């Protein structure tokens, strides 16, 4: 019996140590025959933060200072065009450049003339007319020779999509968890640059820190550049440190934030047991602001958390058991947004997608051409919090357990089992802790399918 494959977007002096790791790998494989859920996700003490923090005597030592993190973020922006330095973005953009941004944001749909086999909610097929309308709604013919950039702030958690349409594009009529038009989700308080409006006026094409795409017009409040800049670089701010947090803003109005979100403050001083937070509100298209008391507790931090091994462990474990959310769907995380959220809670601003994260790493260990034992050795040498990359997937390294087995935590979509030479796909759709023995649809172990190990520290 074989094991499984986890998927996510792909944009889409060894000596005795090697021998030890080889033996460890063999022992793991001998015990890998059980294909039950328990054999995929580890549920014992190794799936707790305490297990790992107690094993690391240097766990509170800084990897990076705040000044070093600023440099790391700048270096990553220089390595990948998927990250945008908002404050230094041009205030006017050429028409040809804007058209290319809109077309490139379509990703796989750019060259497609038909919608393929896709379904809206309820299993309703996407028709050719639906698809043509969505493409035409990009409104490319109205792009000016030069366009003035507008400045907006996201006022509610909202989707950023590949095409400006309210229709979902599921490739499975009955299993509707993966919308192929879903790019990512944006948190409230996120600043965006607005470059274009759809033909029907319902969507705008926006550039965020990590992604470009179409956003519902009603989720953005427009403002002047100076006010907008206070959301790009707030002087005083809270960072959401829980996996998700709802802020009550009056009446029945709750706003959802995800880990790593920043919420501007009126000041860094407590008023009683709470901070006075500035919550953006959209009023007739314009940005307004509401001051809301947010209690000081363990769901937020005044400023970013220290960048330490133990904080990578603690933050990553807060998502454990959460549903897999493709592109931020279902108010959750996929593999790349998961590690992005953990990192951004400490101020490290990773790209959104796994392939771009791999490109952006400051330190990278290529695993190309290496045998399994050497791959295990390289993994064992990685710092806690390093990222383990395979095509279309990324995992966060926790360290070696008491038996010397390298373990990772990740948001996993699916796995495969094998019987009689046939592969069967099973959806698991959870954030979980696992080892690296699992196989993809071609019966290649995860450890052997990994392409690199990356870190920013």
What would the CATH topology of the largest domain be? endopeptidase fold (from Nostoc punctiforme)
Task: Classify the secondary structure makeup into a structural class.
Answer: alpha+beta
CATH architecture annotation name of the largest domain: Alpha-Beta Complex
Number of strands: 22
Could you name the CATH class of the largest domain? Alpha Beta
Count of the domains: 3
Write the CATH homologous superfamily of the largest domain. Answer: endopeptidase domain like (from Nostoc punctiforme)
Q: What distance separates the N and C termini?
A: 39 Å
Which blocks of ≥5 consecutive residues have pLDDT under 50? 1-38
- Mean of the pLDDT scores? 91
- Overall spatial form: globular
Strand residue content: 25-35%
Number of helices: 12
Q: What would you note in describing this structure?
A:
By secondary structure, this protein is of the alpha+beta class. It is 23% helix and 28% strand. Helix 1 (15-30) crosses helix 11 (372-380). It starts with 14 loop residues before the first helix and ends with a strand.
Question: Any descriptors?
Answer:
3 domains; endopeptidase fold (from Nostoc punctiforme); SH3 type barrels; disordered N terminus; 12 helices; 457 residues; 22 strands; 6-stranded antiparallel beta sheet; alpha+beta
How would you summarize what this structure contains?
With 457 residues, the protein is α+β, with helices and mostly antiparallel strands. It has helices at 15-30, 37-40, 49-53, 66-79, 95-105, 128-136, 225-232, 309-317, 335-344, 354-360, 372-380, 446-449, and strands at 92-94, 146-148, 150-154, 158-161, 182-186, 191-197, 203-207, 212-216, 220-223, 237-240, 244-248, 254-258, 262-264, 274-283, 286-295, 300-302, 363-366, 387-390, 393-400, 406-419, 422-434, 452-455.
């Amino acid at each position: 019996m074989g094991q499984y494959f986890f998927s996510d977007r792909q944009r889409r002096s060894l000596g005795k140590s090697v021998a030890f790791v080889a033996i460890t790998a063999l022992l793991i494989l001998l015990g890998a025959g059980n294909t039950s859920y328990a054999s995929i996700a580890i549920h014992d003490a190794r799936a707790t933060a305490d297990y790992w923090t107690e094993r690391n005597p240097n766990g509170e030592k800084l990897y990076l200072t705040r000044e070093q993190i600023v440099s790391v973020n700048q270096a990553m922006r220089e390595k990948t065009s998927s990250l945008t330095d908002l404050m230094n973005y041009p205030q006017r953009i050429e028409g040809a450049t804007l058209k290319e941004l809109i077309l490139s944001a379509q990703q796989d749909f750019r060259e497609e003339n038909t919608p393929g086999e896709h379904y809206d909610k309820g299993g309703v097929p996407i028709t050719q007319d639906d698809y043509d309308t969505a493409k035409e709604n990009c409104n490319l013919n109205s792009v000016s020779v030069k366009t003035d950039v507008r400045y907006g702030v996201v006022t509610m958690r909202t989707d950023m999509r590949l095409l400006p349409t309210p229709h979902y594009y599921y490739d499975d009529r009955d299993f509707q968890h993966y919308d192929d038009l879903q790019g990512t989700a944006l948190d409230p308080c996120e600043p965006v640059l607005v470059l274009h409006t759809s033909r029907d006026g319902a969507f705008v094409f926006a550039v965020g820190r990590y992604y470009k795409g179409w956003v519902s017009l009603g989720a953005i409040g427009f403002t002047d550049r100076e006010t907008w800049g206070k959301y790009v670089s707030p002087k005083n701010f809270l960072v959401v440190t829980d996996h998700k947090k709802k802020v009550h803003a009056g009446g029945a109005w709750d706003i959802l934030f995800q880990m790593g979100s920043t919420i501007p403050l009126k000041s860094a001083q407590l008023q009683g047991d709470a901070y006075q937070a500035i919550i953006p509100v959209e009023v007739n298209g314009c940005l307004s602001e509401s001051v809301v008391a947010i209690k000081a507790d363990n769901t937020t931090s005044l400023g970013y958390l220290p960048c330490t091994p133990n904080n990578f462990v603690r933050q990553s474990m807060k998502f454990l058991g959460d549903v897999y959310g493709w592109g931020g769907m279902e108010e959750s995380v996929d593999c790349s947004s998961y590690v992005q959220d953990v990192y951004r809670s400490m101020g490290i601003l990773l790209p959104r997608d796994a392939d771009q994260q791999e490109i952006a790493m400051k330190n990278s260990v290529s695993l190309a051409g290496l045998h399994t034992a050497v791959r295990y050795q390289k993994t064992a040498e990685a710092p806690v919090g390093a990222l383990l990359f395979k095509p279309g997937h990324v995992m966060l390294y926790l360290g070696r357990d008491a038996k010397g087995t390298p373990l990772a935590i990740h948001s996993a979509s699916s796995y495969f089992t094998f019987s009689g030479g046939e592969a069967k796909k099973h959806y698991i759709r959870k954030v979980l802790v696992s080892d690296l023995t699992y196989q993809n649809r071609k019966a290649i172990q995860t450890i052997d399918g990994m392409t690199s190990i990356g870190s920013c520290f």
